[in-house]
Amino acid sequence: MKTALVIGSGLGGLAAALRLRKMGLNVTVIEKQERPGGRSNVLMENGFRMDTGPTILVMKDTFDETYRALGYDINQRLHFTQLDPNYRIYFHDGDSIDLYSNMARLAAEVDRVEPGSGERLFQFLGANARKYELAMEFVTRNYDHITDLANPVAGVRLLETQAHQRMYAQVSRFFQSDKLRKAFSFHSMFLGLSPFDALSIYSLITYADMARGMFYPKGGIYSIIEDLLTLAAEMGVEVRTQAPAAEILIQNGRAVGVRLENGETLSADLVVSNADLPYTYQKLIPAAHRRDYPDRRLERMEYACSGYLLYLGVDRTYPQLQHQALYFSDDYRANLDAIFRTRTLPGDPSFHLNVPTQTDPSLAPPGHSLIYMLAPMPNLQGGVSWDSAAPQVRETLLSRLEQIVDPHIRSHIVWEREYRPDDFASRINAVHGTAFGSLAHGLFQSAYFRPHNKARDIQGLYFVGQGTYPGIGMPMVLLSARLLAERVARDFHL
Ligand SMILES: Cc1cc2nc3c(=O)[nH]c(=O)nc-3n(C[C@H](O)[C@H](O)[C@H](O)COP(=O)(O)OP(=O)(O)OC[C@H]3O[C@@H](n4cnc5c(N)ncnc54)[C@H](O)[C@@H]3O)c2cc1C
């Protein structure tokens, strides 16, 4: 039986391990941290169960397909609720709007903010539906040659949707008000890109989110990781935690195993790295074997943004809040330029506010709530000192909570944790402390141009997760696991 070693137990690493097992390989996952899950992780303390990473589950079909490929039905194993509204959006001036996935309600809400824009909303979503369908053609395939990119029909149709324009500029053609422009352009931040720089093709996420629905699994996102771990145990995949890899062993140009930090060596027919791809090349592969990705190329790549997270347990409930919300600073552009261009600390950070206990009170002791705040921040390339910045950002976020949630919020905090950009670097080996994923989704780091899931310079070495294609986010890393499995099946004639 062929053997595979998967370095890293992120969502993509676990999905890949299970798919390879299903194909008949003997698979072991080695994970640096104590708890598997990578960026999709959890804190379980003092009766609180807080998802620490992703909370927005869109493109649920990618989760359904992953389970189907393994021979299971995810809906029989986990209980999903569709959220509606998807988000409440708070603005600097105290106004707020709800982004419903019920289209009639969404149109009414949009019309309230900008009279007459309801009609244009449908044109906007229609244009993005088209982008979504066409873009799927590019994200659900393995690339071998640049000509694989050139499906002329899909390419021409994509150009017709103006997919090459900037996202914010294109949203601005449909909506005049600053509020709606913000509300329909922020999604690119989840890919580590400013909407002022992102190609408008990424409005497909806005469509996936608004029109295809956002879901919440009971127990939170980490319940999916837990379920994958249960399947791993049932299917015979060993997941070893606190087992950091120190080096990918290479003989005669072929990956033959891994040396762990404790000196133990594990051999395998193939090695799949789910750890950040730039980190894998820089730290786990000796320079002599790195023809394709020498340090100078890795340093020239464009890295995504980071984030500061504040997790709070409070001793009261807030029936007026929505499960998911966003706060946009008044000067959206200045906020985004600080994060993505000057890489300095934004003065009035925009943030994501998640209150999962609104849907699932079982995540906290009775009468308590969980509050999750995620403020996108510059990655560590900007040199911000987080020992001095973190208390400042925490203070700004708490002041905003006083304005939009409860003027006495501080007196209700009974549990608190934070996660900073330097934590992403030290805990999960994210190069430059990126949060959502390592490599930004510029044109030349997407599709064929993103690092491939098979190393060209080292036989038997593969990649899965956000660093390879299709890219960042839970649905994309699940697709990357599918593409990896297809690639291995072809290479090993399985
Ligand atoms: C705060 C936050 C919010 C997010 N919000 C959303 C969201 O709402 N919706 C969404 O779809 N996506 C979201 N994302 C993005 C999404 O979580 C990630 O893109 C995705 O989970 C990455 O999965 P992955 O398979 O690439 O592995 P990762 O999660 O990146 O895991 C890699 C694993 O490799 C391990 N590792 C590293 N080095 C070694 C080593 N030497 N030896 C062994 N193991 C090693 C790490 O410890 C880690 O466990 C969010 C991410 C963050 C951080």
What are the main properties of this structure?
494 residues; alpha/beta; FAD/NAD(P)-binding domain; Guanine Nucleotide Dissociation Inhibitor, domain 2; five-stranded parallel beta sheet; 19 strands; 19% strand; binds flavin-adenine dinucleotide; FAD/NAD-bd_sf; Carotenoid/retinoid_OxRdtase; Amine oxidase domain-containing protein; oxidoreductase activity; carotenoid biosynthesis
Describe this protein's structure.
Residues 11-488 form the Amine oxidase domain. This is Amine oxidase domain-containing protein. It comes from Levilinea saccharolytica. Keywords: Carotenoid biosynthesis, Oxidoreductase. The chain is α/β, with parallel strands linked by helices. It folds into three domains: 3-42 and 220-301 and 439-491, 3-Layer(bba) Sandwich (FAD/NAD(P)-binding domain), CATH 3.50.50.60; 81-215, no CATH class; 305-428, Guanine Nucleotide Dissociation Inhibitor, domain 2. Helices cover 37% and strands 19% of the residues. It contains 17 helices and 19 strands. The chain has helices at 11-22, 60-70, 74-77, 103-113, 117-139, 152-160, 167-174, 178-183, 203-212, 222-235, 277-284, 295-300, 332-342, 386-404, 409-412, 421-428, 474-491, and strands spanning 3-7, 26-30, 42-45, 48-51, 80-83, 87-91, 96-99, 214-217, 238-240, 245-251, 254-260, 265-267, 270-273, 306-314, 324-328, 351-354, 369-377, 413-419, 461-463. The strands form five sheets. It has a seven-stranded mixed β-sheet with strand order 7-6-15-16-17-14-18. Strands 9-2-1-13-19 form a five-stranded parallel β-sheet, covered by helices on one side. The chain has a three-stranded antiparallel β-sheet with strand order 10-11-12, with no helix packed on it. Helix 1 packs parallel to helix 17 (474-491) and helix 5 packs across helix 9. The longest helix has 23 residues, at 117-139. The radius of gyration is 22 Å and the shape is globular. The mean pLDDT is 94. Flavin-adenine dinucleotide is lined by residues 7-13, 30-33, 38-40, 53-56, 244-245, 274-275, 307, 309, 374, 428-429, 435-437, 465-466, 472-474, 477.
